[in-house]
Amino acid sequence: MNSSAPLRAVIADDEPLLRAELREALGQAWPALQVIAEVSDGRAALTVALAQRPEVMFLDINMPHLDGMEAARRLRERGYGGEIVFVTAYDQHALRAFEHRAVDYLVKPLEPERLGETVARLQARLTASASATECAPGLPWLRVTRGSQTWLVPIDDVACFRAVPGYTQVITRDAEHLIEDPLKNLLDRLDPQRFVQVHRASIVNLHFVDHIQRDQAGHWEVTLKHDLGRVEVSRTGAEALRAI
């Protein structure tokens, strides 16, 4: 993201009055944000997001043709790395929302104070993302430290990232390392054509995938090449791998 370019957003909601309400509320809470498109269904949201690559998507959940959850899932599959905020009249989908790396979940009717919190969270994440991109464009390597020693690990050598308590485990053919960067921060800096999040706690490098299989209980898992072990795969992760 170019730090000097205006930040852009798309609003997807099948109710015109609610789209207008959100647009006006954002104009008050975040005047610098440009709403570049308003659409009424998830299919249109998917199309405009992939074409325009806005920094923020505001998605209603209950929309015709393609609901907001499915639109978000397909966006992530196709490498969309922007921020997603779900806006809905119902709160029972909150846990599922964060499976799609949503930054927030707003319940209608919108409350100015609550929207202000979302805007502050978005601004902080976008600023951090811009700084990371400027410091490490394309993330060609990782810096890992153990004691007084530091290694530079080429990103192409990483077979898998796993979230472990307090750290992210980095698995290569020759070694395992721990880094402090959270898994969710790494994903937006990785090549989506090569690295796929197969589980909320795992990202795999497709070049290291030997095969994917389902056990008798119906659970999916990836077997990595070079005897690097197996990685649990969620249903969404399995769909993403099959799509690729």
> Rounded to an integer, what's the Rg over CA atoms?
19 Å
What portion of residues is helical?
Answer: 25-40%
Q: From the helix content, strand content and strand pairing, which structural class follows?
A: alpha/beta
Count of separate structural domains: 2
Count of beta strands = 15
Biggest beta sheet attributes: 5 strands, parallel
Principal-axis shape: globular
- CATH architecture name of the largest domain: 3-Layer(aba) Sandwich
Fourth-level CATH superfamily of the largest domain: Response regulator
pLDDT averaged over residues: 84
Oligomer: single chain
CATH topology grouping of the largest domain: Rossmann fold
Output the helix-strand order: EHEHEHEHEHEEEEEHEEEEEH
| Poorly predicted runs | 131-137
The CATH class of the largest domain: Alpha Beta
Number of helices: 7
Name the strands of the widest sheet in spatial order: 2-1-3-4-5
Strand content: 25-35%
N-to-C terminal Cα separation, in Å? 26 Å
List the main descriptive attributes of the protein structure presented here.
five-stranded antiparallel β-sheet, 32% helix, OB fold (Dihydrolipoamide Acetyltransferase, E2P), 32% strand, globular, 244 residues, alpha/beta, five-stranded parallel β-sheet, single chain, Rossmann fold
Short description:
This protein is an alpha/beta fold and 244 residues long.
Notes on the structure:
There is one protein chain. The chain is built from seven helices and 15 strands. With 244 residues, it is of the alpha/beta class. It folds into two domains: 8-135, Rossmann fold, CATH 3.40.50.2300; 141-243, LytTr DNA-binding domain (OB fold (Dihydrolipoamide Acetyltransferase, E2P), Beta Barrel). The strands form four sheets. It has a five-stranded parallel sheet with strand order 2-1-3-4-5, with helices on both faces. A five-stranded antiparallel sheet has the order 10-9-8-12-11. Strand 13 (209-214) and strand 14 (220-224) form a beta hairpin. It starts with 7 loop residues before the first strand and ends with a helix.
